[in-house]
Amino acid sequence: MINKTKIGFSTKCIHVGNDIDKETGAIRRPITMANSYRLPEDSSELNWSDPNQLIYTRTTSANQIYLQEKLASLEGGEDCVVLSSGVSALAGVFFTFLNQDAHIICSNVSYIAVYRLLNEYFPEKYGIETSLVDTSNLDEIKKALRPNTKLIHIETPGNPTTRISDIAEISKIAKSVGALLSVDSTFASPFLQQPLSLGADLVIHSLTKYINGHGDSMGGAVIGKKELIDKIKSQAMVNIGGVISPFNAWLIMRGVVTLNLRMKQHSENGLKVAQFLEEYPSVEFVAYPGLKSHPQHEIAKKQMTMFSGVMSFGLKADVDTHNKFVNSLELIVPAVSIGHDESLIVYTGPNDERNHFYPPEFKNGHLRFSVGLEDAEDIIADLKQAFKKCSL
Ligand SMILES: *Cc1c(COP(=O)(O)O)cnc(C)c1O
């Protein structure tokens, strides 16, 4: 009997969560598009809100359970909850673990919805205290600690700065005050970085990005100890309702099968493209954790196996030229999101509400670039022809 906890990452990507369909013998589990499941003969003792029993699709669904099994296994965690989007997973963690008098420490540059939830909505509505700090600086975190600190939330690599925070060191700080550490590991995926093994309590993913990988569905996940995940399931899934559709869960289950291969290619392409951009005279800066020039390159090397495909860069040019550059690209698609098969680029402009927290080189706006799975030579050729069209 093969021990499913001992198998390698690629084998897990393929086999965990899949099984022979008992009814038809199909070697792929089907999509179960149903709201409700047959009740047991005696339902008088039933816990109608049990998030681990198939009763009603808002309390869990078959495809959701299969995907949770696979993701828990890939992150090396005890359990997983899958929700409708990455933001739903993040909001679920904050809603579940922050009570009225709680204090949270969070990176000052993080996903925009996290910034708004923690900087605006939670403090204004519930009196939560938030400290936004540069979490790549351990001293800033230590200084921000308070007796009521319940959660430290980091995003590493961070969106869009690619800033790296030291998961192992921050987990020690969190433990020293009895706080939980949650890590948004979306940019890395479990193939490049496994925060639970470095001491984190919760790992959060936008499944919309690398884990699904094909730009055709949305989802979010939190992985960690069963005791913590059950709380999120009850509070943020059953009673808030951010449940994933069975179809999206199935699509993500299909996408994740090739995660290992895709992350290798994204990372190889990412490094080649970042090196090309860094050498190019009209490029003002490149922020990519795989470059020696990245301020936390050594920490990235310590906690990641490769450096993924996302970078931010800026041109020695004005706003109009940045826009012209993006519109001159022929393969690379101007669109939000990251981690798809195709390369995606976004020019943010200089008016981001988080601008005062960005490193100085980001202040004139930046290009966030998710390097896709195309041939690296073709991506670089596209950049070159767009530079030429803009006389850069
Ligand atoms: C996209 C993203 C999210 C939000 O995920 P959605 O699936 O869009 O809700 C959260 N964190 C990071 C780092 C992201 O890139």
From TrEMBL:
CDD domains: CGS_like (cd00614). The keyword Nucleus does not apply. One of its GO terms (biological process) is transsulfuration. The modification N6-(pyridoxal phosphate)lysine is found at residue 209. It catalyses: L-methionine + H2O = methanethiol + 2-oxobutanoate + NH4(+); L-homocysteine + H2O = 2-oxobutanoate + hydrogen sulfide + NH4(+) + H(+). Gene3D superfamilies: Aspartate Aminotransferase, domain 1, Type I PLP-dependent aspartate aminotransferase-like (Major domain). Keywords: Pyridoxal phosphate. Its cofactor is pyridoxal 5'-phosphate. One of its GO terms (cellular component) is cytoplasm. Pfam families: Cys_Met_Meta_PP. PROSITE patterns: CYS_MET_METAB_PP. Belongs to the trans-sulfuration enzymes family. This is homocysteine desulfhydrase.
